[in-house]
Structure formats: structure tokens, C-alpha cells
Amino acid sequence: MNRRRTGRVLRVAAFATAIMCAYGLGVATGGAAPGNRGPRTAEAGTSPSARAVLDDAADRLSAAAAHPVTRAELDRAAIDGMLRRLDDRWARYYDAREYDDVEGRLNGRYSGVGLWLGTADGETTVRVASVQPGSPAERAGVRSGDLITAVGGQSVAGWSLPRIATALRGEPSSGVEMVVRRGAAQLRFRLVRAAVRADDVTVEEPAAHVQLIRLAAFTKGVGQEVRDVMARSPDRHSRGVLLDLRGNPGGLLSEAVTTASAFLSGGPVVTYERRGAAPQRLFADGSGDTRTPVVVLVDAGTASAAEVVAGSLRDRDRAVLVGSRTFGKGSVQEPVRLRDGSAIELTVGRYRTPAGHNLDGVGIDPDVVVSADRAPREAERRALAVLRGLVATVPADAAGATKAGSHRKDKDRG
Description:
Mean pLDDT: 82
Strand content: 15-25%
Low-confidence stretches: 1-37, 398-414
Distance between the termini: 22 Å
């Protein structure tokens, strides 16, 4: 499956399961606001009598139901029911192991087989969205688009995406069997898990003195990596930067702010609004590169923290956006850790771009539209053309951002 297919069809996901094994709608993507010191621990809030009723009901169901059910299964069903009552599409419950995977992925500490997983719109099956280069999965021959039918000798029918991702995780050097459907064929892979490096920042040079910086996700350290690229060998991007956020599901809001700061001379990046608190404006640190022309590539897979970066650079007249409309996730999630190590992740706030736009359910329309039906290289070709135009219109002694808005009406809908 190419990047166009991934961005257009796969639902945006969260890292949560990610561990290099997750990419599907509904898993949290926002990340906690900067300054948050980690997941809060839930405090007892249910009265003893209410807890007694719940315990009594669970005990009777477990003992008398026609179909056997464990207390753990009932507890999880109860929590899932409470979360549905919130009407929060991003609210999720993770058991202790699943949440450890969430933290590991966001912090770059995980081992697995090197897959991003996804679900196609209207489908219940989980497919391979992309395969990490050099990973155990790539070496074994797993391909993007493969439909996963079994893991560890068990059918995954009815399994959630996080459950499949967790099953593929494990200690380095341990083995796991995975069965996929590719077209009419069924293929069986025996994979050996390994420590997988995130590689969420990759750099290419598609033209002389132009760098393309691809950000797969906003995990810990990504923002500093972007800053390092901009500070290292400036001549390599003296004629511009293509910042590729296509298929980026988001991640840590703090990393998004640091990334945007790499291209701004201070000023607001995003406004964070939390229930019961005054809006908090998050600012660039003032040390960014403001001279290099920037074009940002976006698509339907650009979500959450990635939209923060795209929206801030566009609102601040620092970049031209090329591609197709972004996903439209303007909410921030925060985990609450429970006593047994499991966690509930809830939407705790919304963000707005520097110009005050709420993107939730709306997304960002790019300045230069390239149909999502076009091949990914077409958007890159168009972005390079826009970048050349920016270079041609910006005087050598002017900041690269000053004329960025001049191409705002340039549309390519073909």
C-alpha cells in the first residue's frame, strides 16, 4: 500500500499501541500538554455501597451465566461501558501491558516486528499500513496491505487493533507467528522480535540544496532532531525545506511545539484549552530558522499534533501547505493510571491554531491542492515547484517566510 492509499483510507491512529505496530482510528493521538508530569493516578470516587453492588453483580454473572466469563473480562466490559457513556470517541482503556506499550512507543523504547497497523474505513479487519525498513517483518517479506488473520497461532477475528499490536510485541529474540491474507493467498511468517528503532525522522535531498524532512510521528526527541537537521549543514537546504507530514497521526504536543519552533522566531504555536482552566498559549522559543523557505506536505492521514505544526506554520505565514485536506483532530488526550497499572485515556482539552481555528472535525485545506488520488510523488513534485517559486520571489536579503503567502491561491485539483 503506497502513501496515498495509507493517507486516504487508513483511519488516523494513535500511538498507543504503536510500538511500531499500530495505526488505526480511535487510539489516542493528542498526547498530554507540555508540562504534564505523566499520567495521573485515579483516586477512589465510588462509594462503598456502589462498589459492593458492582462486585455483587460481577460475582453473580461470573458464577451463573450460561457462557463462562471471567471477572477480568467483566471488569473490562464495565470500564468500556463507562467510557462509551462519555461520548468521547478517543477515550480508551489499556491494560497494564498495553499501556506500557503506549509509553514505550512515545519514548522510543520498544521491541517488536516493525509494523504499523491500520483499519480501513468500514472494515473490521486489521491490515499492515507500512513496514519499517530493516525490520524483522521486512526481512521476512511482509508487505503493506497484507490483512492479518492470525497471530501466535490464534485467529484475530474480533480482536481490536491494540490487542493485535500487543500480541506482536515482545522481548527481543522471542518468536511470533503471523498469518496474513494477500489477495487470494494465505501466507505464514515466523518472525523474531527485535529492538526496533523509531526512525520517525528521515531526511532526503530531492533536489540540489533542498531537503525533504519526513516525520512519521511526534515521539520523544523528534522536535530536537528537526532542529538538529536545520542547524547542521545549512547549505544542504539553502533553497528550501519540504516538511512531509503525510500519514503522521500525531503524538506528543510538546514535540509538535518544538518542531514548529525550528521554523519560527518566537510567537504563538498553539492555544490549549482545558475544561475549567484558562486557555494556555504555547510559544516558540525564538531561536528558529526564519529564512529558509518551507513547504509542508499534508494529507488525510495528517492529524492531531501534526496538524498543530501545519496549522501554526501556515497561520504564521511561515509555510505553504501542499496536498489534500488533513484529518481534523483538534483534541488532546491524557492518561489516568489505575491502581493495577492499567490506564484510561480521556480527552481533556482542545487546541486552536495561532489564528484561532478549531480544526476538530474540519481539518486544514492546503494552499495548493493535489488530489489524494494522485501518486505520492506527484504531491512532492508539486511541492518542489512551489518551493522554487518561493525562492524566486523572495529577495536574497529577506526572510524566507515573508512571501510564503503569495502562493496561497495556487490550486492543483487535477
